[in-house]
Specification:
The complex is a heterotrimer of chains A (268), B (335) and C (327).
Chain A lengths: L6 E10 L2 E11 L4 E5 L6 H8 L7 E6 L2 E2 L5 H6 L2 E3 L12 H7 L11 H4 L1 H21 L15 H14 L4 E5 L7 H18 L2 E5 L3 H7 L2 E6 L2 E6 L1 H6 L1 H13 L10
Parallel strand pairs in A: 3-8, 3-9, 6-7, 7-8
Antiparallel strand pairs in A: 1-2, 1-4, 4-5, 9-10
Helix pairs in contact in A: 3-6, 5-6
Chain B lengths: L15 H21 L5 H32 L6 H18 L4 H24 L7 H23 L14 E3 L2 E3 L1 H23 L1 H11 L1 H6 L4 H27 L8 H14 L4 H17 L14 H15 L12
Helix pairs in contact in B: 2-6, 2-7, 2-9, 2-10, 2-11, 3-4, 3-5, 3-9, 4-9, 6-7, 6-9, 7-9, 10-11, 10-12
Chain C lengths: L5 H27 L8 H18 L3 H23 L4 H21 L1 H4 L19 H16 L9 H25 L1 H11 L1 H6 L4 H27 L10 H13 L6 H15 L13 H22 L8 H4 L3
The chains are: A alpha/beta (268), B mainly alpha (335), C mainly alpha (327).
The structure holds adenosine-5'-triphosphate and magnesium ion (MG).
């Protein structure tokens, strides 16, 4: 018997003007699995992430996280509940330092409440120290520790991807949605990151849903693969099955000439 | 070509049907109240419709410009009200100082403000684009202060009026009009549809709407955005100039602060129509003007005190932002 | 007037202190959290008018009336914030413009309540001069008397000097409080929202609540400045709350540098100096303008300064340009 999925979405639909970006798509992510979401450009993968993480509201369909209905819940509530996502175009806080970027994501800081820093300075400072230590540890993991004091706006694209990955980990998520986490990251570092992902699953029991274009990488790490094309889920299964699936191959070959560049696609 | 929704709408899907219901309910209620009310006075109603069309066209003409500028360059132009003031003073020069008729004065006003707007674009807004909405808005605030006080220094701060007879009254059936108002309504009835036609039919008009609606997509589609931006400033300036003349005529008098009050009404029309939607602003300006005037009709629950008209607009704005910030026409937009 | 006129500069210093508090409100909203507020003046006007109306028309005790004034200002921030803070920043900007305009419009037109164009002295009708300042004047008089006793302060003891002793310590205390808050995790959250609110939401922060806090705190500070201004001037009129008041506050922030909270008092002092200093500009060619025209010239220069500063030094005179221009 398979365990109940940690995240399950049924028949999600989202339209932008005349474009059906997500068309009655369903997806299930088993706990402690690494699931890959693939598909040609403009397939609706990022939009799917936006729906799952509460950044967009589906027109119809249902989403369940950890057995509870959650469509229509605000994104911050989902993130606080353990469903955290990263963005395809990294959203780093450019005029704040790398360390501040990380520390923002620390959880359980009472000092974020209005005036708490004045009323309970000691408790706030204690938690702040813990968060700082956690942030430094993760920065070492993603090899940004030497840039901790720099403004995030000075980072390269690949470094920003890493920072976003690290920032998401700061929240200690149960399910992490990664939107092309390796794009622009140096290959050796990307490999290390893969190991970390596998490691985090083993040690912390984390679950991952990853959008990725690099097929080699997808085949290497994922337990299951979900394929989207033109808003719909066209295939789902084990890596080996997907590799041989006719529709998937057709979608990828056909996608070369018809895929439009995502103009404002992944901004939402 | 595929169509795109304005990116602003992402946090607020799914309230459309309820809103339509609410609006329909209010309209029905108002109509019932109007018919049932024993005090319904239809001559007054007709008069208010005329006033509403004038006010509405002023807001519509100014709003089309403001919304296009917003859509194309992401500038909330806080000097837009002062553009109207420039128009009124330019027309004043042609009309009162040079002794020409009002039609010529209006053309002069349109030319003057269009020129001013293009210069502002090239000198100020184009070099500074990409500075962020707030920075650009502050710059436009500074521009407004310069315009307003510059006019006060050059032209004096005293109250001015156009050379139209203030005593004659034109009777159109049950409606009585001062000559200035008559000119204003004539302009309103002719120009507002012309602007609509221009946006709908001409190549430039269509491209303006396309760029204002979705700049990135328009760029991908090969539209020369830089050129369209220049045209938009010209159009916005000309329409603001005309609106300024009409506002001066409608009020009877004006001074250098004329544009301050209408600014928030113009912005309300822009939001009402959906930011970046030219048709929306055209329609919303008219609707807002009519609603404000008709709210004072005796048949409408005895009529609102005229001094609450701006309050009504403010309430409309807040409710709109609460329930339908993408504008009344939002979504139903064609590229 | 003599350029070294002590009473005059004391007055300017008082106004600069009040402007510091007013601009601090805008700092919390705009510089710290990134909320564009173009109707900040409305909060000052609402607090001042509420206080004056309650004291004059309902004979309520002044401290209570002042508190009510602050509450009304904060309540208005909720009216503006709740509909707009979930939307793009442009919508808040538009709502605040409308809010500022509607408050002044009501002050002008609800004659019965507000005294219309006359302001607070007209609140009891044309036959009776109304005033709300009794208790405040008594307090100031006691301070002046105490100053006269002391040997050091006796020569400068005046009402404005007493006001100075209230306003500036208060302003500095508030700066300290908000400096501490800006450095705390709360401030980090606000700055994160300024930079990218989606990123803050993605790591579990309630962005709407945080923005509402910033807007309300700013309204509180704006209201406080409005109260102080009302007490200092002794009368509340619609003309004291022109939209330009808001833009003075922006100018102060930009003069001082939007990235540093301690630059605000310097910005306010500089602004006070520039603004009041213009009255000494009576030499050629400025002498060609009469005094009425010079008032317009002054506002024109404010506008020009706003444009030039935003264009050339958006980070302010003391700010850090490198930080501001990071993408
Ligand atoms: N905010 C938006 N407004 C309008 N259209 C959008 C928006 N976001 C996405 N789209 C459109 O929806 C479709 C799906 O886009 P999406 O970004 O989800 O694709 P994707 O699978 O993530 O592609 P990629 O691999 O290029 O990132 C595209 O046609 C895109 O242009
Ligand atoms: Mg994508």
């Amino acid at each position: 018997m398979t365990p109940a999925p940690l995240l399950a979405a049924r028949d999600l639909r989202k339209r932008f003007g005349g474009v059906l970006a997500v068309n009655d798509a369903s997806i299930a992510v088993a706990p402690q699995s690494i699931t890959a979401l693939i598909g040609p450009n403009g397939a609706g993968k990022t939009t799917m992430f936006n729906l799952l993480s509460g950044f967009l509201r589906p027109e119809s369909g249902a989403i369940e996280f950890d057995g509870r209905r959650c469509e229509g819940q605000p994104s911050h509530a989902l993130a606080a509940a353990g469903l955290v996502r990263t963005f395809q175009i990294p959203r780093v806080l450019t005029r704040m330092t790398v360390l501040e970027n990380m520390m923002l994501a620390g959880t359980g800081q009472p000092g974020e409440a209005l005036g708490a820093a004045l009323i309970r300075p000691r408790r706030v400072a204690r938690r702040e120290n813990e968060i700082r230590a956690q942030a430094r540890e993760l920065l070492a993991l993603i090899r940004l520790d030497r840039l901790a004091g720099d403004y995030a706006g000075t980072l390269s694209g690949g470094q920003r991807k890493l920072l976003e990955f690290g920032r998401a980990l700061m929240t200690r998520p149960r399910l992490l949605l990664l939107d092309e986490p390796m794009a622009g990251v140096a290959p050796t570092l990307a490999l290390q990151l893969l190991e970390h992902i596998i490691d985090l699953r083993a040690t912390r029991g984390m679950t991952f849903l990853v959008i990725e274009h690099d097929m080699e990488m997808v085949m290497a790490i994922s337990d299951r693969i979900v394929v989207m094309d033109e808003g719909a889920v066209i295939a789902e299964g084990l890596p080996g099955e997907i590799q041989r699936n006719e529709r998937v191959i057709a979608a990828y070959l056909g996608g070369i000439d018809q895929s439009a560049p995502a103009v404002s696609g992944s901004r939402a | 070509m595929r169509t795109f929704a304005f990116p602003a709408e992402w946090p607020l899907a799914g309230k459309r049907r309820t809103t339509v219901g609410i609006v329909a309910a209010i309209v029905t209620l108002a109509l019932v109240a109007a018919v049932v009310s024993p005090r319904a006075d239809f001559a007054q109603f007709a008069q208010l419709v005329v006033n509403g069309v004038i006010t509405g066209s002023i807001l519509a003409l100014a709003g089309v410009g403001a919304t296009l500028i917003f859509g194309i360059q992401r500038i909330a132009n806080f000097a837009h009200g002062d553009f109207l003031t420039i128009g009124a003073y330019a027309a004043f020069v042609v009309n009162s100082l040079l002794g020409q008729n009002l039609a010529l004065a209006a053309v002069g006003a349109m030319a003057a403000v269009a020129l001013f707007a293009v210069v502002a674009h090239f000198v100020l807004f184009r070099p500074l684009r990409g500075r962020g909405t707030v920075a650009l808005a502050l710059i436009s605030v500074g521009l407004g202060l310069v315009i307003r006080n510059g006019i006060a220094i050059v032209a004096g701060s005293e109250i001015r009026r156009f050379q139209v007879s203030q005593s004659d009254v034109i009777e159109l059936g049950v409606v009585r009009l001062a000559p200035g108002q008559a000119v204003a309504i004539a302009v309103a009835v002719i120009v507002a549809p012309l602007v609509g036609l221009f946006l709908a039919r001409t190549r430039v008009g269509k491209r303006m709407r396309a760029v204002a609606d979705n700049r990135d997509l328009a760029a991908v589609a090969g539209i020369d955005i830089e050129r369209i931006a220049v045209y938009v400033w010209i159009l916005a300036g000309a329409l603001a100039g005309l609106a300024g003349v009409m506002l001066g005529l409608e009020q009877g008098t004006f001074d250098p602060n004329m544009g301050v009050g209408p600014l928030f009404l113009i912005f309300t029309a822009v939001v009402l129509g959906g930011i970046g939607s030219a048709y929306g602003a055209l329609f919303a300006g008219l609707a807002l003007g009519l609603a404000m005037e008709l709210s004072t009709w005796d048949g409408f629950f005895g009529g609102l005190d005229a001094k609450y008209k701006p309050v009504l607009a403010f309430v409309v704005l807040i409710l709109l932002l609460l329930y339908r910030p993408q504008g009344l026409l939002g979504r139903a937009r064609i590229l | 007037m003599d350029i070294f006129n002590v009473p005059f500069w004391t007055f300017v210093a008082v106004i600069a202190g009040i402007y510091t508090i007013f601009a601090l409100g805008l700092y919390v909203q705009y510089a710290l959290t990134g909320l564009p507020n173009f109707g900040h003046v409305a909060f000052a006007a609402l607090a001042a008018y509420t206080m004056a109306i309650l004291v004059i028309r309902f004979a309520s005790p002044m401290p209570l009336a002042a508190l009510a004034g602050l509450l009304v200002a904060v309540a208005f921030s909720f009216v503006l914030g709740i509909p707009t803070l979930r939307l793009r920043a442009d919508y808040l900007a538009i709502a605040t413009v409308a809010g500022g305009e509607i408050v002044r419009y009501l002050a002008l037109n609800l004659q019965g309540l507000t005294g219309g164009p006359l302001g607070s002295i007209g609140m009891l009708g044309p036959t009776k001069l109304a005033q709300y300042n009794g208790p405040w004047d008594a307090l100031i008089r006691r301070i002046v008397d105490a100053l006269k006793e002391s040997s050091i302060f006796a020569p400068v003891a005046s009402r404005d000097f007493a006001m100075l002793l209230i306003v500036w310590p208060l302003a500095l205390l508030l700066l300290l409080v908000f400096w501490l808050m800006a450095r705390s995790p709360w401030g980090r959250l606000m700055r994160a929202i300024r930079e990218d609110e989606a990123a803050a939401a993605a790591v579990g922060k309630n962005v709407f609540r945080a923005k509402m806090q910033a807007l309300a705190l700013g309204a509180l500070l704006g209201g406080l400045a409005g109260l102080l201004l009302a007490w200092q001037i002794g009368i509340v009129t619609p003309d004291d709350y022109q939209p330009t008041f808001t833009f003075y506050a922006y100018l102060i922030l930009i003069l001082g540098g939007t990235t540093r909270i301690w630059a605000i008092p310097f910005g306010a002092a500089l602004f006070g100096l520039l603004y009041s200093g213009t009255r000494f500009l009576n030499f050629f060619p400025l002498s060609l303008f009469d005094s009425g025209e010079r008032a317009y010239l002054r506002l024109l220069l404010v506008g020009l300064l706003l444009i030039v500063l935003m264009a050339v030094r958006p980070q302010g005179l003391l700010g850090n340009r490198r930080q501001l221009l990071l993408q």
